[in-house]
């Protein structure tokens, strides 16, 4: 028996790196897992490598609200519920001092980092509140705690993710739902 027997998880950016490690750990503990990524080819390869009927892939661009919502809804459609949501995607396209930051890069980083966490958290709560159970993990970074020049947009987002986790945890903690920033 695993610690996650009967639980269903969805993970953004779950086909490689940290997200893949999280998916494999959840599978080893008995969970059913939906992983996402931008590339269907890489996603199907990851599913084949992880094997079994307990893992499924949904294509998802984490910078797009409709894709994030479709990922959470698709998890429920495929496995019947969602118990654990890990919003792991994030990053930057370009780095620069804030004085040189473009509006397009600022918006991209907002969508890829904090907005994807917000959209996913909100959609996950739609299912978790009625079942009075859920675990939501938002991927922050050491940049959510420190200051480093040249990555102001990323740093701002990672600080915001910590604030989002605190606010959500306070709102739903009494409902059997935990929210953490990692």
Q: In a few lines, what is going on in this structure?
A:
With 182 residues, the chain is an alpha/beta fold. It is 48% helix and 16% strand.
Structure description:
The structure is a single chain. Helix content is 48%, strand content 16%. It has five helices and six strands. The protein has helices spanning 17-28, 40-50, 65-79, 103-131, 152-172; strands at 8-11, 32-37, 55-59, 84-87, 134-138, 177-181. It has a six-stranded parallel beta sheet with strand order 3-2-1-4-5-6, sandwiched between helices.
- Structural class, by secondary structure, is alpha/beta
Strand ordering within the main sheet: 3-2-1-4-5-6
Number of DSSP E strands: 6
What best-fitting shape do the alpha-carbon axes yield? globular
How would you describe this structure in keywords?
about 180 residues, 6-stranded parallel sheet, 6 strands, alpha/beta
What is the secondary structure topology, with strand pairs?
Blueprint: E1 8-11, H1 17-28, E2 32-37, H2 40-50, E3 55-59, H3 65-79, E4 84-87, H4 103-131, E5 134-138, H5 152-172, E6 177-181
Helix pairs in contact: 3-4, 4-5
């Amino acid at each position: 028996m695993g610690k996650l027997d009967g639980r269903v998880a969805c993970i953004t950016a779950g086909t490689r790196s940290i997200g893949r490690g999280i998916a494999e750990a959840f599978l080893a503990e008995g969970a059913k897992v939906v992983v996402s990524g931008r590339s269907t080819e890489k996603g199907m390869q990851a599913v084949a490598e992880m094997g079994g009927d307990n893992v499924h892939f949904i294509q998802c661009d984490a910078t797009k609200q409709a894709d994030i919502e479709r990922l959470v809804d698709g998890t429920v459609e495929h496995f019947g519920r969602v118990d654990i949501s890990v919003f792991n995607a994030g990053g930057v396209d370009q780095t620069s001092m804030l004085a040189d930051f473009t509006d397009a890069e600022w918006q991209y980083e907002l969508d890829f980092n904090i907005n994807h966490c917000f959209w996913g958290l909100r959609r996950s709560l739609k299912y978790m509140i009625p079942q009075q159970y859920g675990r939501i993990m938002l991927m922050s970074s050491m940049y959510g705690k420190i200051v480093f020049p040249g990555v102001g947009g990323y740093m701002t987002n990672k600080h915001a993710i910590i604030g989002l986790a605190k606010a959500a945890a306070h709102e739903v903690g009494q409902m059997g739902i935990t929210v953490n920033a990692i």
